[in-house]
């Protein structure tokens, strides 16, 4: 296993420079187009970057999506996470383990691990690291002519969003396929409902609301052997630079559904939120609840609520209100009103279907997919809500998109990284 790193300290600029190096050594696009891939056969060779729970899950999902797929390379910042993923893939419990045997020399560990994997002869790269790293890894993958599956959210700040949008355009120019982890876009019940909404069965949309209200999630206490940087990355949910806060990391799913139904991103928002219950240092500095009002170009107002507090009413749902009916997704999928309807068909696992759709796009057996810009806009919808709640200010789409806010740490190294102070609405500046 390659556990060495060319450099122990990186900055964001270093990663940009390294992307150019990866691109210079990349497999020519012609070698991975059509039915002949990097292996010179009809096999699709997959590299996984980010071997935690979601990354391991994505690896199983793509194996289940097609017998044409092989997992051939793994990369992670930490060797324990890589080894755990590798062992799970090779386990007798994995019926596809014969297509998931990863050799020692194709296992990469360290801050530069993603660059080494991308420089190898893989056709598809799965990006499932801590969300902060998504823009730079997406840029490197597309520069090296790789097809991409990347988890949501696709960035944590406007600087990252602009990078993703630019890379999405480059992917389209190269005809590289990109699917993101907004699996609702590939789920039968959502697709059926959206067809009805967009064909006018609830009339003209007049308002919307969405929720991701649940209890607390996992948390990792800092260990004596961990530096600040290691702890914050292992405990990434609770640091805005790493996760974007839970409105971005989790609630983006619901916001994406509302953008999809309405057919646009919002033009402005005003929000509030706070840190009422999760106040201990182990919870970093993020909020535990948000409430945001978004306004869309046609005057539609959408109310957004997300919360991670135990002992409260839980709800994960989206509601779209029209002039002659209401669509509701949560505890069922239905239309209430003049054109009453309920989804009763089979609903295949969308975590597998999204990979089937990616493979169909790559092989030419389905429509071309490049979801990066669309999900960048949904991610920015979440980011602008967080920015408004953190500062107490109303925020326009243009102000959010053009903001110079960059949450990157000073360097990518295992060392000191003080926890940012908790935002205080009315005092925290809007950048």
What this model shows, in words?
The N and C termini lie far apart (43 Å). The protein has helices spanning 12-24, 53-65, 79-90, 113-118, 134-143, 158-174, 188-198, 228-234, 240-243, 246-249, 252-262, 350-363, 372-391, 397-401, and strands at 44-49, 69-76, 107-109, 124-127, 147-150, 178-180, 205-214, 268-274, 289-295, 301-308, 315-322, 325-329, 333-337, 341-342, 395-396. The protein is globular, with a radius of gyration of 21 Å. The chain contains 14 helices and 15 strands. Helix 6 (158-174) runs antiparallel to helix 13 (372-391). It folds into two domains: 12-184 and 356-370, 3-Layer(aba) Sandwich (Rossmann fold); 185-346 and 378-401, Dihydrodipicolinate Reductase, domain 2 (2-Layer Sandwich). Strands 14-13-12-11-7-10-9-8-15 form a nine-stranded mixed sheet. Strands 3-2-1-4-5-6 form a six-stranded parallel sheet, with helices on both faces. With 431 residues, the chain is of the alpha/beta class. Helix 3 (79-90) links the parallel strand 2 and strand 3.
